[in-house]
Amino acid sequence: MRLRCVPPCLGFLMTSLLFSAQGSNAAAVASRNGNGLALSVTVDFPDDITKGPFDAARLDQVMATIQDTGATRVNWMYYGSIEPDDPYRGNVWQSHWATYAPQTLAAIGEPLTAAVKAAHARGLQIFGMVKPYNGGLSGTYPLGSPEAGSTSKLTRIGGTVQQVIPFLEAHPDMRLQREPLASGAAGPVREIVLSKSDASETRLTPDQVRIWVSADNYRYRPLSVIPTGSVSVEPAPREVRDYHGNVLTRAGDPVRVLRLKNLSLSDPYVVLTTTFSSGLGDFRNTPSGMLTLWGDGGQELPCVVATHAALWIRPRDFRKHGLEFDMGYGHLPIALDAPWSGAKGDPWKPFSGEDEFAEEALFGKGPAGGFIGFSLGKNTHLAAVPCEAYPEVQALWLGWIRAMLDAGVDGVNLRISAHGCLSDEPEAYGWNPPVMAAYRQRHGDGPVDRAQLAAVRGEFYSQFVAEASRLVRSRGKKLQVHLHAEAFRPAPVFGQQNGVPANIDFQWRRWIESGWVDEVYLRTSWFEAAEDPLGAKSTERSRLTRALADPVAEEMIRVSRARGLPITLNRYIGRAAGLEEYLNDLTSIARDPRFSGFDVYEFFDLAQSDPNGSGLIPRLGRVEGLKDRWKQLQSSLFSQGVP
Question: Does residue 502 form part of some domain?
């Protein structure tokens, strides 16, 4: 039975006063010791079991490898209990891609409990890291595919969710809910408008477009119809920005437009390709900026878009499989008329190179182009993101924290970014009934002000942070929080917001100034470290000097230092930067007296389990590189005291 939800009130205020009365933590924060900096490594274990199995001996090798780099702390991601009757159960271990999960769980049992034992046996600290908003994955299995419905019955447009925790399976309406649509999605599609990002000439004409359809987003079939229409230059109806925030088109700018007219498309899933098999594509825009659909009576039809790209099961070939709609790739520019060889080959191959992780076609590397898919309507909920306003959700989160403490962790770390909230329109979600009830109680009827809505939701999340702090400290442990400098800002670009729920004011200053937090992890990297294209030979947006000079990051550092909180920089090692730049970043942080720690994210990019042996396979010289650089720091900077 769902409990009645009310805005944070007397209990929350009493908790707030209690923490405020404790005063600053400054006196309890140790200054830098002779080592100058604490090195830590984060383990996201579901990634590790995709490559090979683990037992107690191999788990010990993980800890030995971490210790060998010079690290003294492990951060271990927690995904819920493995017990089938536990109300706080997770099921990431049952995912199709978790290849070695059954073998691993049979050998070590609950992973965090085993990790705590292994870490403590080697004298390492271990903190449990939890992502409250991580209720699963945004990815789907196409409705017509053999895998559809095999791991979840929850659906998004195009498929069934690949992995979602049992709690959300049982309470699907407690996922973040979409703002009501102004108009419906009734078809058929009568006209398709395709817009370039500018008015330059194009080789594409309506008769060179081909249409494919599917009833279930699987193995599309071509239609024999050859579209007719027009090509013209028209004023752009809206601004278009790409994933990185670059303005491609300003509202009112002249843009080249193709109109495909006199259509009657009623199939639920449609793909547009072209006849080009050579030459450079020139009809370029973001997929979401390129496509507009019109129905009977000139009504614009809401839709979601897809390309070849996906985070899981990629690349997507609509001829042999199905597409991933509304996953954030709608903001990475493509050329619709890019060559594709049809049945003669597969033009949508993932980028291959030195590093299979850093150079994959993830968010940092754009789709190959050559086609665009669409389906009418919008998703009513985000795939796997619980809403913070439900008491049941907060009870779930606190249950996870309690389980980590019971496992013997030395502290708890809260990280907001997750994989279940990916969408082309993250700003459209957060309109759940308890949120709206609290909003109306505070602001009355009338149009919803998004800033006020974000503040209401922020109150609910801050209530959780306060209770989490009380729980963790009641066990004599420390609470860390991630400060997402990439997302906790007034107007993040799409890529900065990606992976973090929108329409919520994460009141990080309040968490710190109320005394609820013991340590801070500063995170500047975008989702999957895609602020620079993965596989790039040089960095730009993610360069450390630029990241730390950002006004939001500077304020986070200043506020944290004013409360005497240790600050650790969390840094992806599997990102656009090469190893030497990464090691230089470590040196820079060691020289920077504002920081107390450096967190290597993640172990999967340092070493992986050998599926054919009994050990770990080091990756790309990173373990040795960290080990050597740490020794250099020990003998130079740290031996001389705090720089």
Answer: no
As a three-state string, the secondary structure of 56-99 is HHHHHHHHHHHHHHCCCEEEEEECCECCCCCCCECCHHHCCCCC
Residue type, 506: F
**Total structural domains in the chain?**
2
Of 357, 376, 395, the position where a domain reaches its end is 376
Q: Has residue 291 been placed in a domain?
A: yes
| Residue 616: pLDDT band with limits 50, 70, 90 | very high
Dihedral-angle region of residue 128 (phi above 0 means left; psi in -120 to 50 means alpha; beta otherwise): beta
Between the ranges 88-92, 502-506, 575-579, where is the mean pLDDT highest? 502-506
The length of the chain is 643
Q: What is the pLDDT of residue 30?
A: 35
CB 125 within 8 A of CB 74: yes
Amino acid at 127: F
Predicted confidence (pLDDT) at residue 33 exceeds the cutoff of 70: no
> Taking a C-beta distance cutoff of 8 angstroms, is the pair 160, 141 a contact?
yes
Amino acid, single-letter form, for residue 554? E
Domain that holds residue 621: 518-582+589-643
Q: Is 350:403 a contact under the CB 8 Å cutoff? A: no
Q: Alpha-carbon distance 326 to 378, whole Å?
A: 9
What is the C-alpha to C-alpha distance for residues 332 and 434, in angstroms, rounded to an integer? Answer: 34
The pLDDT tens digits for 299-356 are 999 999 999 888 888 778 899 999 999 999 999 999 999 986 543 444 454 433 444 4
Q: Is the pLDDT of residue 12 over 60?
A: no
Q: In this structure, are strands 221-222 and 284-285 parallel, antiparallel, or unpaired?
A: unpaired
Query: Does 39 map to a domain?
Result: no
Which residue in 326, 332, 308 sits closest to 220, CA to CA? 308
Long-range contacts of 117-122 (CB under 8 A, 24+ apart): 117/408, 118/56, 118/59, 118/60, 118/62, 118/63, 119/63, 119/74, 119/76, 120/408, 121/60, 121/63, 122/60, 122/63, 122/64, 122/67
DSSP of 626-643:
HHHHHHHHHHTTGGG---
pLDDT surpassing 80 at residue 518: yes
Tokens standing for 408? 């013997």
Q: Which residue has the higher pLDDT, 574 or 409?
A: 409
In a domain, 257, yes or no: yes
